[in-house]
Specification:
Helix content of chain B: over 70%
CATH superfamily of chain B: ABC transporter involved in vitamin B12 uptake, BtuC
CATH architecture of chain B: Orthogonal Bundle
Number of strands of chain A: 0
CATH class of chain B: Mainly Alpha
CATH superfamily of one domain in chain A: ABC transporter involved in vitamin B12 uptake, BtuC
Number of helices of chain B: 12
Radius of gyration of chain A: 19 Å
Oligomer: heterodimer
Structural class of chain B: mainly alpha
Largest interface: A-B, 58 and 51 residues
CATH architecture of one domain in chain A: Orthogonal Bundle
Largest sheet of chain A: none
């Protein structure tokens, strides 16, 4: 079972997978709290166009990924101010980018195979250089999120209150989307465009249901993300089925019972109209703690 | 150019494209109004897993998509009255079905090209049989939508008031999702999973920027998707680039034009006025 770890490519996959699992879990928590799961999905789809363009130009897909996702994240934060409008604006940008992606792919020969590896990831094709790059960028992302985490959380829970307290809500939102774009870029190499999303929201969606304290939830999300990734690689390496399938299946398999079991509490709360209140309360409480 | 039209597959492509464009333009208006863009996206990806699963058991891709998206629509509808707040649930289902799709694909390895076809659309491979299925579901969708037009519109704009007036909001929501699932399945046949948005959401979003009158918006939305599809297909037959690329570029172009027209037309002081469908937040004090 563990014999697969003799191979250097499995070692690389394992290290890179662990790094992206941690980064994705931390940023995914904020993504969910801010209600931006669709933007997360859209940015990963947009990354596809970038990767395809980079392949066409003959450079490493990671550059294309970064250029496209960062540009799109800026466009999304400019275009979509209102929540409902944001989804549509995000969708339009995503669709247009995907159209470009298809064009790039059709111009490139070896259409199907290339599309396949960008979409579904090449976890076994991760090189030592990729690992170093992933590590450095992952570290930078974690440092930035550690710095802006508190005001970002505050503005996610109660944007108006945060604004009156002098938190630059819109600027933080834009910076956060750029961080998400970079996270997606490095995660894509490991799990592929279509499944970046699983690592981003899967662990946090479960963690948020289990604990309410932000730091605890982030910590739990990291543990879950690592567990899914490690088990996924272990199971995938020992069976003919793909790693990405195991990661998503594990993530969904844990989420579903948690979601169903916590539903009772949840509906009771929202019936009394307390759900939103209690979040705001805890945000306020943590803000108060800091002031004391 | 006219010569090309004599080929069967070209005729099929234009027929299927036109029918799908009309359906998407119509249904898409309600998707935008109800803020269900993400649900629409998820349904299309669920269709992807369905199409691949169908290939595995030897069924046609349309059948697989119908089964998977209908099941998902009922499931999502049962989850909540308003899907717009159900981001996480939709997202989790979405990531799981993508994983399933990858699994089906890896079991059925010879189908990598087929999978790319599902993802990016394969309008040139539409058969006369597919056209009949698309036409059948199209007629069904349009008739049902026309019958349900008023209550659905009411329930979309003011769900609470509609409920108080005795409109079965929850049941309508599930019914609408089922119609959406059907529309998504046939749209996937034309533009592919990744670009369903181009026909279902982008034209309607453009129309909503141009007018607030429902019927006019629906008409504009249908026109935009129809023009984009027909022109996109024509370009694809003349040029060398894929049809989905032209269709997406054209609908996006319409959207950005609509955005500019909207910005130019509405004076600054009116711009913040909420559309009747939007939740009016109490003034912050």
């Amino acid at each position: 079972m563990f014999a697969i770890f003799q191979y250097p490519f499995i070692q690389n996959a394992f290290i890179a997978g662990s790094i992206v699992a941690i980064v994705a879990a931390v940023l995914g928590y904020f993504l969910i709290v801010r209600g931006l799961s669709f933007a997360g999905h859209a940015l990963s789809s947009i990354g596809f166009a970038g990767a395809a363009g980079a392949v066409l130009l003959g450079v490493s897909p990671i550059y294309g990924l970064m250029v496209f996702t960062v540009t799109a994240s800026i466009a999304i934060s400019v275009l979509g101010r209102e929540v409902r409008e944001r989804d549509v604006a995000t969708g339009v940008i995503m669709t247009f980018a995907l159209g470009l992606g298809i064009l790039f792919l059709s111009l490139y020969h070896g259409y199907a195979e290339q599309a396949y590896s960008i979409l579904f990831g090449t976890i076994v094709g991760v090189s030592r250089d990729d690992v170093v790059f992933t590590f450095v960028l992952g570290l930078i992302l974690l440092v930035v999120i550690a710095i802006i985490g508190r005001p970002l959380l505050f503005s996610s829970f109660d944007a108006e209150l945060a604004e009156t307290r002098g938190v630059p809500v819109r600027a933080l939102g834009s910076i956060f989307l750029i961080l998400i774009a970079l996270t997606i870029s490095i995660t894509t190499q490991v799990v592929g465009i279509l499944l970046v999303f699983a690592l981003l929201i899967g662990p946090s969606a479960t963690a948020i249901r289990l604990v309410h304290q932000p730091l605890q939830a982030i910590f739990l999300a990291i543990i879950l993300g690592l567990a899914y990734t490690w088990l996924g690689i272990l199971l995938g390496g020992n069976s003919p089925w793909p790693v990405s399938f195991f990661i998503t299946a594990l993530s969904f398999g844990v989420y579903l019972p948690v979601r169903l079991l916590s539903k009772g509490i949840d509906s009771k709360r929202s019936a009394k109209g307390f759900e939103k209140l209690s979040i705001t309360d805890s945000a306020l409480a943590s803000q108060k703690d800091r002031n004391d | 150019m006219i010569d090309i039209l004599r080929h069967d597959f070209v005729q099929n492509a234009f027929l299927a494209g036109a029918i799908v464009a009309v359906i998407s333009g119509f249904v898409g208006y309600f998707v935008v109004l109800r803020g269900q863009a993400f649900a629409c996206e998820a349904l299309s990806h669920i269709g992807f897993a369905g199409a691949l699963g169908a290939a595995l058991v030897g069924a046609s891709s349309l059948e697989g998509m119908f089964v998977f998206t209908l099941l998902a629509a009922v499931g999502m509808g049962a989850l909540g009255k308003r899907l717009s707040g159900r981001d996480i649930e939709v997202g989790m289902v979405l990531s799981f079905v993508l994983g399933l799709g990858v699994l089906f694909l890896s079991i059925y390895t010879e189908n990598a090209t087929g999978a790319v076809g599902v993802l990016f659309g394969s309008i040139l491979s539409v058969t006369i049989n597919d056209v009949q299925v698309i036409l059948g579901s199209g007629v069904f969708i349009i008739i049902l939508m026309a019958v349900l037009y008023r209550p659905v519109l009411f329930a979309s704009i003011e769900p609470e008031v509609a409920e108080a007036r005795g409109v079965p909001v929850q049941r309508l929501s599930i019914l609408f999702l089922i119609l959406l699932a059907l529309s998504v399945s046939v749209a996937v046949k034309v533009v592919g999973v990744l670009l369903v948005f181009a026909l279902l959401v982008v034209p309607a979003a453009a129309a909503e920027h141009l007018t607030h009158r429902p019927w006019l918006a629906i008409t504009i939305s249908i026109l935009i998707s129809l023009i984009a599809t027909i022109a996109g297909l024509t370009f694809a037959f003349i040029g060398h680039w894929p049809a989905s690329f032209y269709i997406v570029s054209l609908t996006s172009l319409f959207y950005f034009i609509a955005l500019i027209v909207h910005a130019v037309r509405s004076p600054r002081r009116y711009r913040e006025l909420p559309h009747p469908s939007r939740e009016v937040l109490p003034p912050a004090d």
